[in-house]
C-alpha cells in the first residue's frame, strides 16, 4: 500500500499524541510530536536565562537558534521516541509546568517556527508519517492526505493533563493551575499572528469529550483505511 501523511492538530491535551502514537504503531509509520520540539526550545530558553519572570527575551533566543540541536531517538523499551536537546534526553523535563508556562510565548516567535517547520518538513519528506501539533495541516503539510482536528472541552482536557502529571508523581501542581495553563495556551495559540491554531478547511473534526479511547481509535483507523 502507498504511504500517506497524517496531520493531527488541535488544542492542548486533546489526546492527539496518544492517537498519533497508536496510529504510527498500527501502520508502521514514524510519529513526530512537534509540541515536544517547541517545548525543547522553551527549555533551552529557561536553561539559558532567556525566559524568566513570565517574559521571553526574543532577540537573545533568536541569536542562539543555531545552537539548538533537536533530535528524536527511538527508545526500544518504551516503544516510542524521546526528544534530545544538544544530546541530552529532555523528554521528562519538557513536560514540567515551568516549560508549559513559557512554551506558547516561545512558539509565537516567527524565527522559532521557521526553524522547526523546516525540520518537520524534512522528517516527513518520504511520507509514512503521523505528525501532531497546531499547524501541521495548515502550514507544515498543507497537502497531507488525512487531516484530523481534535477537540474536547477545556475542563476535560485540564483533568486529563492533571491526571497525567499526578501519575508521573508531579503532585505539587493543582488542578486549577493546570486548567489556567490550558486556557491560557488556547488563547495564545489561537490569537498569535504567525500560524495561529485553526482547523484546516479539509480537516475532519473529532470531539472526543464523550468518546472512549477505543471508540476514537476505531473511528480514526477507518478514516485512515479509506485513504490507503
Ligand atoms: O502539543 P503540546 O501541548 O505539547 O504543545 C506545546 C505548545 O507548543 C502549544 O501550546 C503551542 O504553543 C506550541 N506548538 C505550536 N505548534 C505546533 C506544536 C506545538 O505552536 N505545531
From TrEMBL:
InterPro entries: Cytidylate_kin (IPR003136), Cytidylate_kinase_dom (IPR011994), P-loop_NTPase (IPR027417). Transmembrane segments: none annotated. Signal peptide: none annotated. It is an enzyme of class 2 (transferase). ATP binds at residues 10-18. Residues 6-225 form the Cytidylate kinase domain. It is found in: Cytoplasm. It comes from the Bacteria. CDD domains: CMPK. Belongs to the cytidylate kinase family. Type 1 subfamily. This is Cytidylate kinase. It comes from Wenyingzhuangia fucanilytica. The gene is cmk.
